[in-house]
Design goal:
heterodimer; A: alpha/beta; Rossmann fold; nine-stranded mixed β-sheet; two-stranded antiparallel ribbon; 7 helices; 27% helix; B: alpha/beta; 9 helices
Chain lengths: 269, 333
Amino acid sequence: MAQVNMIVCCKQVPDPEAPPAVFKVDTAANKMTLPPDVKPVISPYDENAMEAALRIKDKAGGKITVLSLGNQLVRDVIKKPLSVGGDELVLLEDAAFEEGDSWSTACALAAAIKKIGEYDLIFCGRQAADWDAGQVGLGIAEILGIPSITIARKVEVTDGKATIERVIPDGYEVVEMEFPALITVTSELGDLRYAALKGIMAAAKKQPIIWKPADIGLDPGQVGATGRRTKLHRLFQPVKEAKCEIIEGETPAEAGANLATRLRQAKIM
Amino acid sequence: MAEYKGIVVYGELTDGKLASITTELLGCGRNLADQLKEDLSCLLASDAVGEASKEAIAFGADKVYVVEDPALKDYQSDSYIQVAEKLARDISPRAILMGQTSMGRDIAARLAFRLGVGLSTDCLDLGIDPESKLLLQTRSVYGGNAQATFSCEVMPQIVTIRPKAMTPIERDESRKGEIIATKVEIDMSKVRTKIIEKVREEVAGVKLEDASVIVSGGRGLGGPEPFNTTLKELADVLHGAVGATRPPADNGWVPEAVHIGLTGKIVAPEVYIAIAISGASQHIAGCSGSKNIIAINKDSEANIFREAKFGVVGRYEEVVPAFTRKLRELLAG
């Protein structure tokens, strides 16, 4: 089987598993603030995308280039894909890339992919855990003029072709497409493997390739905040009316029975 | 420069009938069109549209563009996008509304990038800015931990809307509207994907989307077994369906088809019983429309108690069987 050239797009985000109570909006700045003990992570669906690429590399061999965009990315976080088997890390890293939307982000990533040049498959997570838009992967495919399959739970490769199990509401469909193509991956595919110590040490030594807007042929005005198509008016948190009636009992079983009585009384059941 | 006018809903059919999400989009679109004093159109594209075009009028459309082609039998982005793009260019709408569905998630961004415009996915609310007349697009962000309002000045404005976020208008068969049979040449050489097979993962019993009671379980159940026993028994007593959060689906304890949440199904039953569910925002996004959330969790600090109307703090193994027994007794009597 021929080796497969792959690009995986990974985004650094605040840990989405942090408890809901710690997410606080700074309404004056229209920004999400999180306490310093909430560490950034690779967006979970991007980790699933990385795992999809690694499984193909395990079987067919090939190269995985990891691509990310941001500013002052945390090296320990963004190098994680290298520690599990990524070959190269390209960072679009500059203040000009900050505060982008799906439009400006996809344009920059597509420009970087054109510069990387050779690829068979591009993998993205189905959506990022911060803005949850789910647009960037499809935007990249559209700009590059390549086909795409979204929400993949399994990807296999044979002779210049990818076979994908795509999740649909009542099950899944098996879809085929030829290279070059883009795939967005969902969590059902499986978690990203753990890094071995050797991998972590190798990743620590590897230096990322850093590109500024000019390196990918873009004007700083075309990327980040100034390249946006959409305008953010307001970021806010709707007020919740917390008023849960806790049903008690001498024992948990009695509480369960009391709950049934209370729900019947309230005509909920 | 074309003048952009009117609202268009890109509709969907389920088993040959107008999908419920499409009636919701028409309800939302009707309201926006009335505010703007413009028309509401609906696109229906399939191998056979049938009576669904009349239904779209009964649910509020002034015009229905019907595109029928055997190539549209099974949804594929490369064929549907040709129809979606052609209609957008031909009728120059002010706004295109789609569902945040399997199709909407797959095609809306492609369409937006092809037309060179912005997009807000998974909107919960749409308003109109009184001065600019632009759509104010409010959507959930950060896994449901916040909401954000966006606008886009480049026309057409495109949004996808979360299922059950909008209310259809009263169905009225006497409403008048125009059905416009529309021909779009679908270039099959541009369809680069091929569906080999569709596999249905059947879930026995009441369908999640139709259930008025849902009994749902989380990671705290520890494995597949409680879904088939403790939760199933409770659901059966209430003629309800069994659902789950994302981890049980990812671990294969339950089929993905019963995953409720931001990236799974959106449900809004009368009663939602959350068992051993911590209440992560990503899960709440899928069930917050429920009328009554009832939580059973051993951790009194769990976030689910901030969402629930009634709750019991305790181990589900002890609470739920007694709850089920008592309910059976009460419902029999």
